[in-house]
Amino acid sequence: QVQxxxxxxxxxxxxxxxxxxxxxxxxxxxxxxxxWVRQAPGKGLEWVAVxxxxxxxxxxxxxxxxxxxxxxxxxKNTLYLQMNSLRAxxxxxxxxxxxxEEIAVAGFFDVGGQGTLVTVxx
Amino acid sequence: EIVLxxxxxxxxxxxxxxxxxxxxxxQSLSNFLTWYQQKPGQAPRLLIYDASYRATGIPARFSGSxxxxxxxxxxxxxxxxDFAVYYCQQRTNWxxxxxxxxxxxxxxx
Lengths: 122, 109
Prior knowledge:
The structure holds 2 protein chains of 2 kinds. Chain A has strands at 3-7, 10-12, 18-25, 32-39, 45-51, 58-60, 68-73, 78-83, 92-102, 109-112, 116-120. Chain A is mainly beta.
């Protein structure tokens, strides 16, 4: 079955960097767009970024644009989120999620991982 | 930026009752509106996409309606497992910001 497993979360000081990974299995990873979505403690969902299957289309939320970079390695079935210049407000559980449609980016997702917690604190 | 406003913030109902959740957009979405369910400690679960299409495996008691700026998620007869937080999300093609509403918590009365 489709499975997404995030890793790389932890406690990091403001201004530092962190890279999240998402290992995918159970589907043809190279044919689907992928998203990162986050959720601050006790708060709602916030869409963060999306990358198309071929990396040609990449979009970010305004809150992370210029600081975060989404990427993928289709040979390793892995999605990444490089987070630089971290702020306290980036503290959240980060979920990776599989876009609903093959090839085209639909903009919504049908499967998500269990998330990894990033805490930005001094 | 498109803003989605969900109402009510909290809805208190009993099993067997009908639930009606609202999502209003700051500009027209056509039918590009998605609904998710989220339970504590879990990833969001896709329920409805393109305003009215049920995702695979979603029970028929869940239905979505609406177009333009006003959308509704209806649960016809609540089951105990339906008590959760529900989010709407828009997916217009420009400016590619797939924003969520703030959520509606459906709690047991």
